[in-house]
Amino acid sequence: MNKNALVGAILASTLGAAVFAHNGATGVVMDRMNGMTAMRDVMRDLAPMMQGETTFDVRAVQTAAATLMAHAGDNMNKLFPEEPIPAASYARDEIWRDWASFASLSEDLRISAMGLAVAAPNALETPAAPVDLSADAPVVDHSAMQMAPVPETFSIAQLMGVEPLRETIRARSADGMFETAPAIDFAMLAADDVFEMVSQTCASCHAQFRRGN
After folding, report:
1. How confident is the model over 80-136, as pLDDT tens digits?
2. Burial class of 154 by CB neighbour count within 10 A (0 to 12, 13 to 18, 19+)
3. d(CA 130, CA 145)
4. Cα distance between residue 194 and residue 185, in whole Å
5. For residue 4, what is the enclosing H or E element?
């Protein structure tokens, strides 16, 4: 399956799972439904660009990424207090039974959305890595180097992809626990590849923690 077909399949699953009526929801349930609707709309609007069907708009992609970030991570988690699930909600009890997995997926979404903002200037092309061909270029052994701690906040320039930004993502290990994966330099990825990460995270979360189709 080619990349566009894969993105389309993931997106169809993601959007299909996000189509809902609010069914009289109020309070925090309404708030999280509104957030899911906002993310659904963003993913729907970005899809044609990511599949090369419409002109790629860097500014629009970065604005969309900011919307995704605003509804992910801790901002999403706080909208899921442990409480009886009302009939209007599409949330499943599994969210609170496996809160660590849900919170990790929410954080994955925040990080990949941030990565989408960083990768946006690359559009659909993976940039070539710079190569130092000078004869006296030193050879550096990075094997013993430790990653710098991830900052709590980022500059506007970083979020808009002007400055390089490295982040960590989480990966599920064989025993089901979450561990920190090697840093990804999103500035070296095509935007549609990062969009695929976002789509996969959404689809995985819906499959595990959302009831209905």
Report:
1. 998 888 777 888 999 999 999 999 999 999 999 999 999 999 999 998 866 555 556
2. middle
3. 21
4. 11
5. helix 3-18
Task: Report the candidate in 64, 67, 59 with the shortest Cα–Cα distance to residue 47.
Answer: 64
Question: Which tens digits make up the pLDDT trace of 21-44?
Answer: 455 677 888 899 999 999 999 999
Structure tokens at 43: 């993913």
Strand 166-167 to 178-180 pairing: unpaired
**Burial classification of residue 135, based on how many CB atoms lie within 10 Å of its CB (0-12 exposed, 13-18 middle, 19 or more buried):** exposed
Distance CA 156, CA 166 (A): 15
What does the DSSP assignment read for 57-110? -HHHHHHHHHHHHHTSTHHHHTT--SSPPPTT--B-THHHHTHHHHHHHHHHHH
pTM here is 0.69
The number of residues making up the chain comes to: 213
Which two three-digit tokens encode residue 77?
């988690």
Q: Sign of the CA dihedral 33, 169, 177, 198? A: positive
